[in-house]
Design goal:
Helices cover about 25% and strands about 40% of the residues. The chain contains 3 helices and 7 strands; from the N terminus they run βααββββββα. The longest helix is centred in the C-terminal third of the chain and has 19 residues.
């Protein structure tokens, strides 16, 4: 059993509708645009490839245009990474909230990585 990781969340305003954003977070075609070099799906299992190495994640739970929750196959059972789509009640802006787990010492690096990936996502969306 690996040691317990810490949960952390990041929020990014994204200029697009929740339905468009959801496509980028929940489909192999959408995820391949910004998250990984190549993405394949069989049933609830997603295969993410970077530089020839592949990681596997299961979809744990999802609600269309609201959220999709994945678990890497090397995560503990109570760990996950989640893309949640929220709308600001004040500005009506679409907010992408990412929740993930990492060792405390790795969180800063992980946040930098998410920042880079989300800026790719925004670029693809034209946000």
């Amino acid at each position: 059993m690996s040691k317990k990781k810490a949960m952390y969340s990041l929020e990014f305003p994204v200029r697009c509708s929740p339905s468009i954003l959801y496509e980028f977070l929940s489909t192999p075609v959408g995820l391949q645009e910004w998250f990984a070099d190549k993405v394949d799906q069989r049933d609830h299992t997603f295969y993410f490839s970077w530089n020839g190495a592949t990681d596997t994640a299961e979809i744990v739970e999802q609600a269309e245009n609201e959220f999709v929750k994945y678990r890497w196959d090397y995560y503990n059972p109570d760990e996950f990474f989640e893309f949640r789509i929220e709308q600001s009640p004040i500005t009506n802006e679409t907010i992408l909230k990412i929740t993930d787990f990492a060792d405390k010492f790795d969180i800063k690096d992980q946040e930098r990585l998410w920042n880079t990936q989300v800026s790719d996502l925004k670029h693809r969306i034209g946000s």
